[in-house]
Design brief:
This protein has 15 helices and 14 strands. The strands form three sheets. The chain has a six-stranded parallel sheet, sandwiched between helices. Strands 11-10-9-12-13-14 form a six-stranded parallel sheet, sandwiched between helices. Strands 3-4 form a two-stranded antiparallel ribbon. Helix 2 packs across helix 3, helix 4 packs antiparallel against helix 5 and helix 10 packs across helix 13. The radius of gyration is 21 Å and the shape is globular. The chain starts with a strand and ends in a 5-residue tail after the last helix.
């Protein structure tokens, strides 16, 4: 069972990672059920309305766990659903794992005057109860270890190399070179840095979010293309000459791998996330001057980018997740007499997920 406050219709790396992992676990022969906000009454998260916050979910979470009786339970997020699942496991002495997907203290600090140290203290409390807290990169692992986390394990990220692959670049009829930003258009993504950097060609922004209106007003020469999905997203990404990743707070940045799979080099700051994914001078460029990084990235061999991505299939990453799980005795989960049948959370038929419709049928069973 995987518990996540982040799920469709959200579009981000966390949702993509969990969806792919669940599908591949099904391919490995496991039965997987998700607990997501789609099962509960919810409200939009302040300043981040795409995220739904489940209202008073503990009884519903408890009911679903008891009915499914999972042999392994993973809590992916620190929201209301994650807190409820954690509470249930602690109350009944059940082992579980968790994962650290987002630099939540930095994101929160960008919006409210909350001390970063206080946020990390809360995260240590949350993840400290897990048998293992999974992290995506070595730099995130070292950063969290320096902040007092002691139960860390590696869980790399993958990419669908059949969907994201080199394609013809004539699809975009814009002056070249084309620099692309792909992702949520939100304050923590630092997109201003991308739009301000000197560039002789064109800039495109693929994605949407609360900052789009302001950025479109302030940077009228950039092309804002909105959300793109599946084949459409892959075509746009592959048509770029360089993908610029301006965030300083991401733990990984799944789009970096997607760009490399398309043979598009990445330009980024030398910070946590990019330094574990981008090989400077080989698959992209890292520099404290983002414009210089983008200019250097244009000289990178696209074939090296593609080769790097081919070593990061979702099957390998999902096996790593599987190996990190902490099995519990299913008999310890209490039975509920006369429990109502539960609605299984199934993946929508989205072309960017890779596995087939037959795999989706195995994705979730109650």
């Amino acid at each position: 069972m995987i518990v996540s406050d982040a799920w469709y219709p959200q579009t981000n790396g966390v949702v993509s990672t969990l969806a792919q992992t669940a599908l591949w676990l099904g391919r490995f022969g496991h039965d997987v059920q998700m607990i997501t906000p789609n099962d509960f009454r919810s409200i939009p998260c302040p300043t981040y309305p795409e995220i739904r916050l489940s209202l008073f979910p503990f009884e519903g979470v408890q009911r679903r766990i008891r009915a499914f009786k999972p042999q392994a339970l993973h809590i992916a997020t620190e929201g209301p659903l994650g807190l409820s699942a954690r509470r249930y496991c602690i109350r009944h002495g059940l082992r579980f794992t968790s994962s650290y997907h987002t630099q939540f203290p930095q994101y929160l600090r960008a919006r409210y005057p909350v001390p970063v140290a206080l946020s990390y203290r809360a995260l240590r409390w949350f993840h400290g109860a897990a048998v293992r807290c999974m992290v995506s990169t070595a730099s995130v692992r070292e950063d969290l270890r320096s902040r007092g986390f002691g139960n860390l394990a590696s869980w790399r990220r993958g990419v669908d190399t059949e969907l994201f692959k080199p394609r013809a670049k004539e699809f975009l009829q814009l002056p070249r070179p084309i620099a692309a930003y792909v992702g949520r258009v939100a304050i923590e993504k630092n997109i201003d840095a991308f739009l301000k950097m000197p560039w002789k060609g064109s800039k495109i922004v693929v994605g949407d979010g609360p900052e789009r209106r302001r950025l479109q007003t302030e940077y009228p020469r950039a092309h804002f293309l909105g959300f793109r999905f599946g084949e459409d997203l892959a075509i746009h990404l592959a048509a770029a000459d360089v993908m610029v990743f301006p965030s300083r707070t991401d733990t990984f940045g799944l789009v970096n791998l997607e760009a490399m799979a398309c043979g598009v080099p990445v330009a980024a700051y030398p910070v946590t996330g990019p330094i574990d994914v981008v090989e400077d001078g080989i698959t992209g460029a890292l520099d404290d001057d983002l414009g210089k990084a983008a200019a250097r990235a244009l000289c990178v061999d696209p074939r090296a980018c593609r080769d790097r991505a081919l070593r990061s299939g979702w099957d390998v990453c999902s096996r790593e997740f599987e190996g990190n799980l902490a099995p519990s005795d299913a008999g310890r989960f209490e039975e509920i007499s006369g429990a109502l049948p539960l609605r299984s959370e199934a993946l929508p038929p989205r072309p960017d997920l890779g596995p087939t419709a037959a795999d989706s049928a195995n994705f979730s069973r109650s």
